[in-house]
Design goal:
The protein is α+β, with helices and mostly antiparallel strands. The chain is about 35% helix and about 30% strand. The protein has helices at about 15-35, 40-60, 100-105, 130-145, 150-155, 165-175, 175-195, 200-220, 300-305, 370-375, 400-420; strands at about 65, 70-75, 80-85, 90-100, 105-115, 120-130, 160, 225-230, 230-235, 240-245, 250-260, 265-275, 290-295, 320, 335-340, 345-350, 355-360, 365-370, 380-385, 395-400. Helix 1 packs antiparallel against helix 2 (about 40-60) and helix 7 (about 175-195) runs antiparallel to helix 8.
Length: about 425
C-alpha cells in the first residue's frame, strides 16, 4: 500500500469555497424572488459568511486515510465527532464525479461505496483531479490485493468504445419522450395563439420540455466504455462528468432496448442493473452500458465486456398463450421467456422492443402474479427479481401451467448455479 494515503489528511483547501458556491444559488434565487432589498441583501451576506465559516470549520475537522487494516477511514464533525471505516475488501464502486464549478477549477469528488446495509458510501469532496485518480487507483489496488500500477498502466484501456456525439443526439431526439415534448410544445403554442393571455403557459411547457431533453443529452455526452485491469470503465458528461469502474460481477441484469424509430438505423441501447448502487439517489451509479450502439458492433461489445452473456436463444423461446392477445393486444406476439443454461431471458415490447437477461445465480427471487383478468384468460406473469435499476425481467402472458413449470425450473437452475459459482473477485 502506498504511503501517500496512510496518514490522515484533508481534502483540498478550496473545499469550503466550492461547497459555499454550490449553496449560493439558493440565496440568489430567494433574493430575486423576494425583491431587491437591502435588508435581504444583508441577510444573504450574513448567510454566506456564516455558511463559509461553518464549511471551513467542518473542513478543518475532516480527515481521511487508508488505515493498516486496509479500510478507508473518515473522521468528521465539529461538536460531535464521527468516525467511519469502510472495508475496501467489500468494495462495490469507486467513482469520480466532476460538477461544473469544481471541474472548471480542476477539482472532483470521489464516491466510494461498499457492500452493506444502510449508509455504506463515502463522498470525498473535493480533491484535485490527479489526487482523486491516485486515491481511486490505490483503493482499487487494495481491493484486488495487487501491487500499485504504474502511471501509464493506470490510464491504459485494453479496449475502448466511444459513442459518436452526433449519433447520441440523434438517438435521443428519436425517442418517444422527445416526440411527446415536441407535440406538447406545438400544442401549447397553438393554444397560446387561440387563447389570448396563455402565452406564459406555452413558454413554460416549451422551455421545460427542452430543458429535460438537453439534460439527457449533456448527461450522456462524450460517452465512452472500456475495459482495463480493474473492470469496465464508463465515463460521460458534458458539464458534470462522471467516471465509473464497474466489476463485471456487479452487473446483475442487462436489457437491449430498441425504440421503433431506431429500427431503420439498426441502433440499440444497453441498460444495466448494477449491484451496490442507489438508483434513486442523485449520485447513483451507471444505468447504461452504452446509450446507443449499432447492431453490427454488438458482438464485439459483448465479446470484450460480457463474454459469458450469450443472448442467442432463437430456438428456445416459451411463447405467450394464445389468449394473451386479449390482455396484451399490441405485443402478444413478442412476449416470451427463455431459460438457457446460463441466463434467464425475457422478450417484450411492440413499439419499443426489449430483450432482458440475467444470470441464474444473480436473480434475487422468482414470483408468479395473476390478476382477475389474467385469471379469466388462464395466463400469468413470471417475475425474476433483480437489484434496483432500469432493467425489469417480467415474463407476461404465459399460460399458468407454463409459468409454474418455468418458475420451478428456474429455481433449480438458481440453486445449482450458486453452488457451483466461483469466488467473486473484483
Amino acid at each position: 500500500m502506498s504511503d501517500n494515503f496512510s496518514r490522515p489528511q484533508h481534502t483540498a483547501p478550496l473545499t469550503p469555497i466550492l461547497q459555499l458556491v454550490n449553496g449560493s444559488p439558493i440565496v440568489l434565487v430567494a433574493f430575486f424572488a423576494v425583491g431587491l432589498s437591502w435588508l435581504f441583501l444583508l441577510i444573504g451576506v450574513i448567510f454566506l459568511v456564516v455558511g463559509g465559516l461553518g464549511y471551513w470549520a467542518s473542513w478543518r475537522k475532516n480527515f481521511f486515510w487508508i488505515n493498516e487494516k486496509g479500510e478507508l477511514e473518515v473522521r468528521s464533525g465539529i461538536f460531535f465527532r464521527r468516525s467511519r471505516q469502510l472495508r475496501i475488501s467489500r468494495l462495490q464502486s469507486v467513482d469520480i464525479l466532476r460538477p461544473p464549478v469544481a471541474r472548471l477549477l480542476g477539482y472532483s469528488s470521489l464516491k466510494v461505496e461498499v457492500a452493506g446495509s444502510g449508509d455504506s458510501r463515502v463522498i470525498l469532496s473535493y480533491l484535485s483531479v490527479g489526487k482523486a485518480q491516485e486515491l481511486r487507483s490505490e483503493i482499487l489496488n487494495v481491493a484486488k490485493e495487487e501491487q500499485a500500477f504504474t502511471q501509464s498502466a493506470e490510464r491504459e484501456n485494453h479496449w475502448q468504445w466511444r459513442v459518436p456525439n452526433g449519433r447520441l443526439v440523434a438517438s435521443l431526439v428519436l425517442t418517444a419522450s422527445t416526440f411527446f415534448v415536441i407535440i406538447g410544445a406545438v400544442a401549447s403554442a397553438v393554444f397560446a395563439l387561440v387563447e389570448r393571455g396563455s402565452g406564459l403557459v406555452a413558454l413554460v411547457l416549451a422551455v421545460g420540455g427542452s430543458a429535460i431533453s438537453l439534460a439527457g443529452i449533456t448527461s450522456l455526452f462524450n460517452f465512452s466504455v472500456g475495459k482495463d485491469e480493474r473492470g469496465i470503465a464508463i465515463s460521460h458528461g458534458l458539464f458534470t462528468t462522471a467516471h465509473y469502474t464497474v466489476s463485471p460481477i456487479r452487473i446483475q441484469a442487462i436489457c437491449l432496448v430498441q425504440p421503433i424509430a431506431w429500427r431503420p438505423f439498426g441502433w440499440y441501447q444497453i441498460a444495466i442493473n448494477v449491484a451496490g448502487t442507489d438508483q434513486s439517489g442523485k449520485k447513483s451509479g451507471p444505468r447504461f452500458l452504452i446509450p446507443v450502439v449499432h447492431e453490427g458492433a454488438l458482438p464485439e461489445l459483448f465479446r470484450e465486456l460480457l463474454p459469458s452473456w450469450n443472448l442467442e436463444t432463437e430456438d428456445e423461446w416459451l411463447a405467450s398463450a394464445a389468449t394473451s392477445r386479449w390482455r396484451f393486444p399490441w405485443q402478444a406476439a413478442r412476449l416470451a421467456v427463455s431459460v438457457t443454461p446460463d441466463l434467464f431471458v425475457v422478450r417484450s415490447g411492440a413499439l419499443t422492443r426489449r430483450l432482458s437477461a440475467a444470470p441464474h445465480e444473480r436473480i434475487q427471487s422468482i414470483r408468479i402474479t395473476q390478476g382477475p383478468w389474467e385469471r379469466k384468460l388462464g395466463i400469468s406473469s413470471l417475475h425474476a427479481d433483480s437489484v434496483p435499476g432500469p432493467v425489469r425481467l417480467n415474463g407476461r402472458g404465459l399460460g399458468s401451467s407454463v409459468a409454474v413449470h418455468t418458475a420451478l425450473e428456474e429455481l433449480d437452475r438458481m440453486f445449482t448455479a450458486r453452488e457451483s459459482q466461483r469466488s467473486e473477485q473484483w
